[in-house]
Amino acid sequence: MLCSDCNRYLACFKLHLANASSFLNLKQAKAMNLSIVSEEFQKFFRLSRRNKSLFENPITKTIMRIGIVTITILITTSVQLLFAVPVKSQSIDEVKVKVGLNNETLIQAFQKIEAQSSFHFMYRNAEVKNIRNLNFPVKTESVEGLLKIILAGSSLTYKQVNDQILIIPDKNLIPESTLKIDDLSYIPDANIVKGKISDSKGNPVRGVSVAVKGTNTGTSSSESGNYSINVPDNAVLVFSYVGFITQEVSVNNQSTINIVLQEGTTALSEVVVTALGIKREARSLGYATGTVNTDQIATDRTTNIGNSLQGKVAGLNVSAPTTGPGGSSKIRIRGQSSFGPYNSPLIIVDGVPMDNSGLGATSVNGANPTRFSSDGGDGLQSISPDDIGSMTVLKGAAAAALYGFRAKDGAIIITTKTGSTKGIGVELNSNTQVARALDYTDYQYEYGQGENGLRPTTVGEAQSSGVWSFGEKFDGALTPQFDGTMKPYLPHDNRIRDFYRSALTSTNSIALSGGNEKGNFRLSFANTDAENIVPNSDYHKKILNIGINYKLSPKLSLFLNANYSNEYNKNP
């Protein structure tokens, strides 16, 4: 500051009064400011001393240390990211994967590639969801090569962006001539067939199987009955569902096929013949029944149809005595019902009970067919398998109550065939079977007939030791036989095989049937010639059957059935 009189600095004592007063005011202001600062420092030090216990708390110190470490890590990471060098991703033509496809979708193919590489696919679901039925043999291929193959023929292409592979539409399709199309089976998007499946009442049917005939390609209808499936050219679609008739429809370049399923009445309502020939639905019965498939009986036939029932109905057991082709058949339903011999079911043929007792036995139902010298068979021998129209097994007393005590062990209801109502028909059947012994036991051929190491020396000893082979070793010496002759003491190696023979059984039948709206008839004749594996044992039978149905009035019908059987059982 200069003096106004002498133009000197403050060293001059001749200051103007005004200047002097301003100087004094400035000095006082500085002194005041210093006083204020001094007071603020004093307040801060007093506050520090007051909060000293807070900073010395262990929890506060731990929080401060964590904060310092966190700040340090953030600063370090930011510096590394700022100066980091970008990593270059591998090209899709360099990375190889081992992938195989078996009727799989395009999305599944992408998932398999992602599982074996670092790439991730990005796509619009609507553009790829309909590409399916891809087939590719298991082999190692580059990612790019595999993408060219599975996208061939579609409207899509690919583009790599670092580790991302974008699947995008492409107007310029990849030329198929440069690809290995032979390795790929692919159905284009253009052959998509859609439609709705409903029943005869117009209600949608859910879960209907829709398959391309001759292939493994298939789908099922949704809850609303709609379906969608990829098909090749000239394909045939098969629509099937339980309880409905299976339908086959040719595509013929159609894009929409709606189907109306028809109920399969034969599959839904199984009709069985109960007591007194009454026909009822199986599901409406209050007792157990079983239906025999008569086609199986006619195909795998036996001379006695009772033996053909083995394994055909649950709870029915059949055992045949080893008495040759003309023997009887032991039938039990749900086992033995008593200790007595009366345990066989009652046989009903066209509403008439039939005696099925074994011929030559002292008791009925074939309970003891071997008491006498032979088994002459039973009543079921007299029925030809080609004449049976239906066979129902009524299990237990409740099922066959209308037949009384004789049916306490159940009943087998047999209904013979009737004629056709559409003109004249001729039916021919021929069946041939060959039977041989199952086991030729290998006996010992070192020691001969006799006991206690001695051969028979008299006819009496030969007769009493005929079943024993505890004699001497074979030496070829002449030895007495049971018939009084002398024969060499030698073994006969093939005596069992030479005794039995191959048994031929042949059955031929012919049937003539016809009728019209009012009635029908059927006339049949069957001839059976059966040999036994035991020589000089044969069985022959001839069966003539006739059945007539005629409707006399709307409420009165006539039914006539006659069966004639001529059997010859030689040396049974």
Explained architecture:
With 572 residues, this protein is of the alpha+beta class. 19% of the residues lie in helices and 31% in strands. The protein is built from eleven helices and 28 strands. The chain has helices spanning 17-50, 52-55, 58-83, 106-115, 125-128, 143-150, 265-268, 294-299, 396-399, 459-464, 495-499, and strands at 96-104, 120-122, 134-142, 156-161, 164-169, 192-198, 209-212, 218-220, 226-230, 236-240, 247-250, 259-260, 271-273, 279-281, 289-292, 316-319, 330-333, 346-349, 352-354, 388-394, 411-416, 425-435, 478-480, 486-488, 503-515, 519-531, 538-553, 556-570. The strands form nine sheets. A five-stranded mixed sheet has the order 15-20-21-18-19. It has a five-stranded antiparallel sheet with strand order 22-25-26-27-28, with no helix packed on it. It has a four-stranded antiparallel sheet with strand order 8-7-10-11, with no helix packed on it. The protein is extended, with a radius of gyration of 52 Å. The termini are far apart. Residues 5-38, 172-190 and 361-371 have low confidence and may be disordered.
Short summary:
With 572 residues, this protein is of the alpha+beta class.
